[in-house]
Specification:
Shape: globular
Bound molecules: 2-amino-3-ketobutyric acid
Radius of gyration: 19 Å
Oligomer: single chain
Number of domains: 2
Number of helices: 12
Strand order of the largest sheet: 3-2-1-4-5-7
Helix content: 40-55%
Number of strands: 14
CATH architecture of the largest domain: 3-Layer(aba) Sandwich
CATH superfamily of the largest domain: NAD(P)-binding Rossmann-like Domain
Largest sheet: 6 strands, parallel
């Protein structure tokens, strides 16, 4: 393969994939970044700013055809079923998250691609993990199907690196907060939906308790972490697809209070549902010293700066009449 990156992003219409694809197009050239969706329609900017195709990641032949046809040498495999949907449809979560990953790894191995990125998650942790700050190396005994697939995925990637010498990298994403594409089916989705309600002038009914503290991150930091890890000098990395990364940790009530400073009169009430059990099985914060040491990770946004930027961006969307109902 030559030096030009030829990138395929699976799950490109999703919350992270949609913004990651545009950032990769900016960086490596629009024509070099192929966005692959599955069922949801892409936004016009995603569809029109570079190549777009449809792939069901559980169908290896579709994936292989795209890698061959577009001469792909780097895959960002962002397709996934998240924690809340995974509890409702555990078999589907296994098929998409594990069969899909196996297909990506096998196609990448067979066609000798340069790099694969796999998002992991704080969902790899479980109730036996130290709750206040999850260490990098710790007990991984999740109680959700999503978590089970993410632990298996990390181990599968490690196996492919060690057995076949492949370059596979990945991060344990916390809850990602963003203003462009809504998340689909996660436990941390409340930390996004609350902003849409506030900007629409509505009260928000939060599906976890007010004292629920979880690790979170703003999308610009998520994109930066993802690209920085993929560009890091491989000889500095002692880990593969399982780097802890931290940015923010706050309770649901602290987030509501921060929003209330900018949206006077905003109210949030709490009606925990089945997602509370998932949230309670995850740590409040994670230790990301390996990421800081091995590829110089550090976040740019804290709770006040993230909140202000979210409100500004969503207010702009509301002015354009482009604010979907996220509740
Ligand atoms: C979820 O809530 O399922 C995801 C995640 C933390 O991976 N946002």
């Amino acid at each position: 393969m030559g030096n030009t990156k030829r990138i395929l992003v699976t799950g490109a219409v999703g919350q992270i994939g949609s913004e990651l694809t545009l950032a990769l197009r900016d960086r490596y050239g629009s024509e070099n970044v192929v966005a692959a969706g599955h069922r949801s329609q892409p936004s016009p900017v995603l569809r029109d700013s570079g190549p777009f195709t449809w792939i069901d990641v559980t169908d290896r032949s579709q994936l292989k055809a795209a890698v061959v046809d577009y001469k792909i040498n780097t895959i960002y495999h962002m397709s996934a079923i998240l924690s809340a949907v995974g509890e409702k449809k555990p078999q589907l979560a296994w098929e998409v998250n594990i069969d899909g990953l196996t297909n990506v790894l096998e196609v990448a191995r067979e066609l000798n691609t340069d790099q694969v990125f796999l998002p992991s998650s704080i969902a790899v942790f479980g109730p036996e993990t130290p709750r206040d700050c999850a260490p990098q190396n710790t007990v991984l005994r999740p109680t959700t199907m999503y978590g089970v697939t993410k632990v298996a995925g990390e181990l599968l990637c490690k196996y492919y690196v060690e057995r076949f010498g492949m370059d596979i990298r990945g991060l344990r994403y916390p809850g990602i907060i963003s203003s462009e594409t809504l998340p689909g089916g996660g436990t941390t989705d409340y930390a996004v939906a609350i902003f849409y309600a506030a900007v629409a002038g509505k009260p928000y009914v939060c599906f976890v308790r007010e004292d629920t503290v979880l690790p979170m991150m703003y999308m610009p930091d998520c994109i930066k972490a993802t690209i920085d890890l993929m560009e890091a000098d491989r000889s500095r990395l002692s880990r593969h697809a399982d780097f802890n990364i931290a940015a923010l940790s706050f309770s649901a009530s602290a987030l509501a209070a921060e929003i209330g400073k900018l949206v006077p009169g905003f109210t949030c009430t709490y009606e925990p549902d089945f997602r509370q059990r998932i949230a309670d099985s995850w740590p409040k914060a994670v230790d990301d010293s390996a990421a800081r040491k091995q590829w110089d990770w550090q976040p740019d946004y804290d709770l006040p700066s993230m909140t202000r930027d979210m409100i500004d961006r969503l207010s702009e969307r509301a002015r354009r009449g482009d604010l979907p109902d996220a509740t």
